[in-house]
Amino acid sequence: MKWLGKISGADVLTVTNGLLGVLAITYILDREHVIACLLIFMAVVVDGLDGIVARKYGTPHEFGRFLDSISDTVSFCLAPALLIYNNFYDKSLGSAWVSMPNAIAVVACMFYAFFGILRLARFAGKDYSERHFVGLPTPAAGVLAVSITLLWGSPDLNPFAVAEMETFALALTIIIAFLMISDVPYPNIRGWLVVPTALVLLIASIPLIWYLLLSNTIDIPATEIEYLAIIFMLAYLALGPFVVLHKRRKKKHKRKR
């Protein structure tokens, strides 16, 4: 039990991230998807805070990266995968063995969880020392999965969601899953990136909070706000690798001088 005395403030935030993921899963099982989405957004914020606290105050041990990966597995792999399954799997169509849409939903859910866990294992094993992410980071993938669900899988928040978009949403989820285990570099969310990321999460949370406060009544442009959030994340998805490559070129240029 002595090792408990080594737990730092950053560790408490890391565990809080995982607990928010567990709580999100309980709401997903109860089909309270809006609350679950809000909890996953909160987990992303807490996950960012634990890194800031760890860098500023340090930690008296070396298992922080493993603890972080375990919490991220719950909040950004399992919870979003269950959210995708619960929103896109339609029991009225029959089992996944006889229904192609349901089969795609199961494949998307499994790929997302499996590749997310593999990505976190790689991070804890060797990639934690890199200044940039190797593969799409799971918090970014989690925000994308939540945004996809809110826009195209959740009639609670978006009553205008159409079935024709479900295949596109699931295909995008599978692409995100593969990007998590890819070698594509992505910039770490720190420095100047922290402010716009925090603002996007705050803005994306507004319709969710509004939904909860007004007893399932949406009086604000919720869909438009979620589109802004997913556009920001897709910009990170597409432009992030170029930001890392630009930084590498600048470093090489300085070394030559």
Task: Outline the fold blueprint.
Blueprint: H1 9-29, H2 33-57, H3 64-88, H4 100-125, E1 133-134, H5 138-152, H6 164-180, E2 185-186, H7 194-213, H8 222-256
Antiparallel strand pairs: 1-2
Helix pairs in contact: 1-2, 1-3, 2-3, 2-5, 2-7, 3-4, 3-5, 4-6, 5-6, 5-8, 7-8
What order do the strands of the largest sheet run in, or round the barrel if closed? 1-2
- The oligomerization state is single chain
Distance between the termini: 53 Å
Shape: globular
For the biggest sheet, the summary is: 2 strands, antiparallel
Tell me the number of structural domains. 1
Return Rg in Å: 19 Å
Order of helices and strands: HHHHEHHEHH
The share of residues in extended strands comes to under 5%
Uncertain regions: pLDDT < 50 for 5+ in a row?
none
Helical/strand content category: mainly alpha
Average pLDDT metric: 80
- Output the number of helix runs: 8
